[in-house]
From TrEMBL:
It comes from Lactiplantibacillus songbeiensis. Pfam families: Aldo_ket_red. This is Aldo/keto reductase. Residues 22-271 form the NADP-dependent oxidoreductase domain. It comes from the Bacteria. The keyword NADP applies. InterPro entries: AKR, Aldo/ket_reductase_CS, NAD(P)_OxRdtase_dom_sf, NADP_OxRdtase_dom. The keyword Oxidoreductase applies. Keywords: NADP, Oxidoreductase. Belongs to the aldo/keto reductase family.
Amino acid sequence: MTKITKLTDTYALNNGTKIPVVGFGTWQTPDGQVAYDSVLAALKAGYRHIDTAAAYGNEDSVGKAIADSGVDRKELFVTTKLWNADHGYEAAKKALDTSLAKLGLDYVDLYLIHWPNPADMRDNWEQLNADTWRAMEEAYADRKARAIGVSNFRPKHLDALLKTAKVVPAVNQIFLNPSDMEPEVVAYNDAHGILSEAYSPLGTGKIFGITELQTMAQKYDKSVAQVVLRWSLQHGFLPLPKSVHADRIQQNTEIFDFELSEDDMATIDGLRGVAGLANDPDTVNF
């Protein structure tokens, strides 16, 4: 693996597209001034990878911040996601066009299926995913998306998708942090050349109270967040930290001037369950 030294270093996706190794997450960031200000602060802090979704309800504000930032579009990597109500060929095509309009962009760098098995579609999830993926493959061919992928998919969902897919997903964005390393999913991703992206890399804030991480943060003279983001990078994951505070947004970029020891990595690996586990996509109620 190429040594990672800065925020704009990249991983190569399975289609050759370069993706910055850390992204700025916007899940649970309310639309309006808060989303606008936080994305603008992230871009000012040096982030060039912004992650949003139709379901977050903040694509308008994310897009406005991107437009007002003065950063060249070609320097940015922007991800959004297809929500559950829009599964199926025609619905997926319309959903991407709606997201592009809200973002004010001609294309996204990555478009993801947000969940594999929405509650209202459990009787027909496999066919709907196949139809959705066909629409996304067309969007990819038409350069409306530079790469396409999935989120919250388990091996069974990926196996089903790959029965008909012509394009292997470039990314699987999953709940991935010291509390749940999702080893079976990560192993599957690795075996198929799919990058594991970590949403909630800080365990939706729950990891900050973990004694082992507090002790480690003092050892390295870093914050708990910085330690955990560094852990994520050393595993080859792509973390998507979220914050609405400019000082923490900046702090979360300062993770390239230290390295965790093997023993400390192992300690963090052993924290399963301390901040909850990933939702089962086959049983969630949405």
